[in-house]
Specification:
The chain is an alpha/beta fold. Helices cover 44% and strands 17% of the residues. The chain is built from ten helices and twelve strands. Helix 1 runs antiparallel to helix 2 and helix 3 packs antiparallel against helix 4. The longest helix has 41 residues. The N and C termini lie far apart (57 Å).
């Protein structure tokens, strides 16, 4: 059903682009050739969406790259053309108003030629804007993530943990477009921050262990004083055998928190680190269980919760969690999707507060769908814990 709706939307987008950039701007053989090219691009995009489901990640890479790049370019081309629609309508109206009467001799090119000129100008302008945005977005998405340093004050934190660093990474999205080199770069960047603890908060993979196990393998090289921890994201439940991936991550040395917690100690001080499954786990009989995740935590010391989706903070706040670390939103990934994400989640990115619970949301280190990041650069966040009062 989802693919049917998406396919219909894509067909309408291509039809609109054809009308504005082909039908309105070309004639004769040029129109025929341009129409054929647009149909081929539509088929390429459909193949990029369908082939991974049929042939797997490895076999789909040859079609995924051009298909998803065209997806991003198509989106911004449609957006640019829509922005230009009011201008186009105003100028077309002026062209009609200046058409000569039967008694007047035309001094300018005929109105149809002026309309063709306006259509071509609009198409070229929209195309240039879309290509520019796509190029910028691809460079940002495929480049190194930003390393963000985020101080977080926690009232119940013992002074022994002052400056305790948690490297937070989310939404790595290994798949047809991102592979082992992507993981290696992320691991190297995390290790360079010398964290006390690493938190991988979901959406690591978009494929099976057989397809992407080698791409995820560099995670075993993560180095931190207290270890690396993982919680599931929604995409971990879209890849077939979720349990097989969790066993693989355990083999790589990641501690998977499935509705459970562990105690992090330093000298005589401690805080609890908990993790809950993503809400998508309910579809696989593996739902989030906050009561189980927080069972036995010490109410006198802080609790840090790993939860993929920011929306889970409502349950965390009701249970007195001090800090929730999340991802999922990609920071919107491609403007103007920011506004849609903000309707679905309590926070788009960064640090915020819900009741007495602080929520930090990473924009993620990868991408999903088009390999573009516009207005939402990727990041690896180093959360530095601090007591309420400096010591």
């Amino acid at each position: 059903m989802f693919l049917l709706v998406l396919g219909s939307l894509l067909a309408l987008m291509h039809l609109y682009v054809w009308k504005r950039t082909v039908k309105d701007t070309t004639r004769g053989r040029a129109r025929l050739l341009a129409s054929g090219l647009l149909v081929a691009l539509l088929l390429l995009l459909i193949a990029a969406l369908v082939v991974p489901r049929v042939a797997g990640v490895t076999a789909s890479r040859w079609v995924a790259w051009p298909g998803y790049l065209w997806f991003g370019l198509l989106f911004y081309l449609v957006l640019a053309l829509l922005v230009l629609e009011p201008v186009r309508l105003i100028l077309r109206g002026r062209v009609r108003n200046v058409e000569p009467t039967e008694d007047e001799a035309p001094v300018d090119p005929p109105a149809p030629d002026r309309r063709l000129f306006l259509a071509r100008t609009a198409a070229v302008t929209a195309g240039a804007a879309a290509v520019g945005l796509t190029g910028f977005g691809a460079a940002r998405a495929l480049g190194a993530p930003d390393v963000l340093r985020v101080p977080v004050r926690m009232p119940r934190l013992h002074p022994a943990f002052d400056g305790f660093r948690i490297a937070v990474v989310s939404d790595i999205h290994l798949g047809p477009l991102l592979g082992r080199a992507h993981t290696e770069r992320i691991v190297r960047m995390i290790n360079e921050t010398e964290p006390d603890l690493v938190a991988v908060v979901g959406d690591l993979v978009d494929g099976t262990v057989e397809e992407l196990g080698p791409a995820a393998e560099p995670l075993q090289d993560l180095v931190s004083r207290e270890g690396s921890f993982f919680v599931t994201g929604n995409h971990e439940y879209f890849v077939g055998d979720t349990a097989q991936w969790l066993r693989e991550l355990d083999r790589f040395g990641l501690n998977v928190l499935r509705n459970e917690n562990t105690r992090i100690t330093r000298g005589g001080a401690a805080f609890d680190l908990a993790g809950v499954n993503d809400v998508a786990g309910a579809s696989r009989s593996d739902p989030p269980d906050f009561d189980a995740a927080l069972a036995g935590v010490d109410p006198a010391s802080p609790t840090v919760l790993l939860a993929h989706q920011p929306i889970q903070v409502a349950d965390a706040a009701d249970r007195g969690v001090d800090l929730q670390l999340s991802g999922h939103t990609h920071g919107g990934q491609m403007w103007p999707f920011h506004y849609l994400v903000e309707l679905a989640q309590p926070s788009l990115a960064g640090l915020s507060q819900v009741k007495d619970t602080q929520l930090y949301v990473s924009r993620g280190a990868g991408f999903w769908g088009p390999p573009l990041r516009i207005g939402a650069p990727p990041d690896i966040s180093v959360v530095s814990l601090k007591p309420a009062i400096d010591v």
